[in-house]
Amino acid sequence: MFQVWRFSSFPAVGILALLASGCGSEETMKGSLSFLDSKGEGVPQEGVSIKIFDKDGIVAIRRKSRVMLGEQVIQLKGGESSSDFVDNYLSSLFDIVDSTPSLDELETDDAGLFDFSFTGGECLIAAHFVAGDENPRWLRLIGRNAIKQEGIDLNTGNQLKFGGIEDFVSLAEIEDQFKIRLGELGLLAEWKPKLEPQNLIYISPGNFVMGSKDGDALRGKNETVHGVTITHGFWMGKYEVTNERWNAVWAITDFNSSEQKLPVSQVSHGKAQAFCWKLTESERGAENLPAGFIYRLPTEAEWEYACRAGTSSVFSFGDDPASLSEHAWHQGNSRRIYHQVGTKTANAWGLHDMYGNVLEWCFDWYGDYPSFPVVNPLGALRGKGRVLRGGGYTSAESQCRSGSRDQWASISRSFNVGFRVVLGCPL
User: Fold this and answer.
1) What is the enclosing helix (H) or strand (E) of 141?
2) Starting at the edge strand that comes first in sequence, how are the strands of the sheet with 374-375 ordered?
């Protein structure tokens, strides 16, 4: 349980007492709502609106509230205050609560009493009442195992309370997201002149539609359309990692100089991650890293977000595959060999070879997409293979789309598989 909204000028304290009776999978609960007056005596509150949400309502509010927080974070410009940000978030949160269908909606009687049915393992109670010039809102998640014989005391102490850290965004998380984003904006101003010469492109946070629409040409399986919000900016390699970069990081001197600008290949997922760790260690020692940032593989969502570069079409340059050869080395023009990086047209954000040349490892395990909006997704918790994106020099047009997905075992190595780095927050 944690406190999140102060009403400093509100003289009374609200009490919502829930008394349990009965047993079984569906129980009737008796509640009462009252203020404490200046003498500390309870004053029943008549006609207060009470909403009860079951599991479906809880899930809906949780998902919407997390997406909303992400959207508000990416709109920060750097001059906002933490208190204003929290107030705006909570105001929007109750817009979500008010618009979400409830299991039950009722009012307290003239004695401040009400009854409601409790189904499942937990329910969410939202109360809204007027007290002078204030309009206090209560939101409380209650688990069946938390209800005691004497009831549940929701004395707010002039503050709104949430319950269930796993189900709702906490005040600490709201403030952390705010601080992290403001910190990133400060780092951007400082580090942009230092990182751009290292062939890193800054990708601002934002939201986009991930996957492929039903009517998209060449659409593949497991490309369910869903909204994604990326709340943290990150730097992405302008090019796929080259043999030259690979050899420099590992201090390899015995190599063919004519292949320096070719993308490194035959790299397993684990070796790609090891390269990122080694690069982070080296650059941190040289003080070439922003505080808190590391080199790593992009998440699948970050990769597609950067690939699309603000577009929603089949390719970042449009829907017609006839133009693919201007942007990618693929099955139709590669002569079945990979090519020097950066020789094809970049996308609108300055990234080269997002299609073709070599397939690129992503951080995620391969899994089914959700059908609802998400924030900073990390993919499946486990799986048989890791995600590969973008297609390679042996790939058909259908495999070189923004929404195209592939998976290989983590230990796999191939001449048409490489990777691209991201410099960003740890996952």
Assistant:
1) strand 137-143
2) 206-210, 226-230, 374-375
* C-alpha–C-alpha distance, residues 76 and 171, integer Å: 17
pLDDT at position 132 is: 59
* φ/ψ bin of 160: left (φ > 0), alpha (ψ from -120 to 50), beta (otherwise): beta
Domains present along the chain, CATH in parentheses: 2-172 (2.60.40), 199-424 (3.90.1580.10)
Task: Identify residue 270 by its one-letter amino acid code.
Answer: G
Phi then psi for 61, rounded to 5 degrees?
-65, -40
Q: Which residue has the tokens 């020789």?
A: 343
Max CA pair span of the chain = 87
CA nearest to 169, candidates 2, 43, 19, 16:
2
Least confident piece of the model among 115-129, 370-384, 401-415: 115-129
pLDDT one-digit tens code per residue, 172-215: 888 899 999 999 999 998 999 999 999 999 999 999 999 998 88
Residue entry with tokens 């992400």: 70
3-state SS record for 335-386: CCCCCCCCCCCCCCCCCCCCCECCEEEEEEECCCCCCCCEECCCCECCCCCE
pLDDT tens-digit map of 132-174: 566 667 777 777 776 654 445 544 433 344 433 344 677 788 8
pLDDT over 50 at 10, yes or no: no
pTM for this model (two decimals): 0.88
Q: Measured between alpha carbons, how far is 155 from 314 in angstroms, rounded to an integer?
A: 54
The Cα 268–Cα 410 span in angstroms is 6
CA distances from 176 to 67, 183, 239, 302 (A): 16, 10, 32, 21
